[in-house]
Amino acid sequence: MRQYKKYLIRPSDDFDPAYFSAVQSEVDLINDQTQHLPAVYKAEIITSFLKRLSLESEWTKANPGLAEYINSGSLPNEHIRSLFDSCQDLPVFRQHLEKYLAKRFSDASVS
């Protein structure tokens, strides 16, 4: 059965958060729900999970509360995951999406 992608992205497209309000909303929600957790590897953990659905063991040991939250299934990620799925063959778009997410999660972190 053929899988259809939620977002139609052309090879010439570049990631612009203004065109993905649902993604921005999910990032805001994730930041709100994780603001009380330590900042250690926070951006890396969340971005890695959203991108690959996996976590580095070094990071989870350094921030077990965040890893537990993510593993609980509470992380809102439908739109972000769909966007990653839709741009898997578009490295420039994907890289800019990753950079945006890492910055947003880093900026919202408390030390």
The chain-level structural class is mainly alpha
- The shape is globular
User: How many runs of DSSP E, i.e. beta strands?
Assistant: 0
The main sheet comes to:
none
Indicate the percent of residues in helices. 55-70%
Which parts are unreliable, with pLDDT below 50 for 5 consecutive residues or more?
A: none
Radius of gyration: 14 Å
**Total helical elements:** 6
- Topology order in helix (H) and strand (E) letters: HHHHHH
Share of residues in strands? under 5%
Alpha carbon gap, first and last residue: 46 Å
Average pLDDT, to the nearest integer?
91
Summarize this structure briefly:
This protein is mostly helical and 111 residues long. The chain has six helices and no strands. It is 59% helix and 0% strand.
Report on the architecture of this protein:
The protein has 111 residues and is mainly alpha-helical. It is built from 6 helices and no strands. The protein has helices spanning 21-34, 42-52, 57-62, 64-71, 78-86, 91-107. The termini are far apart.
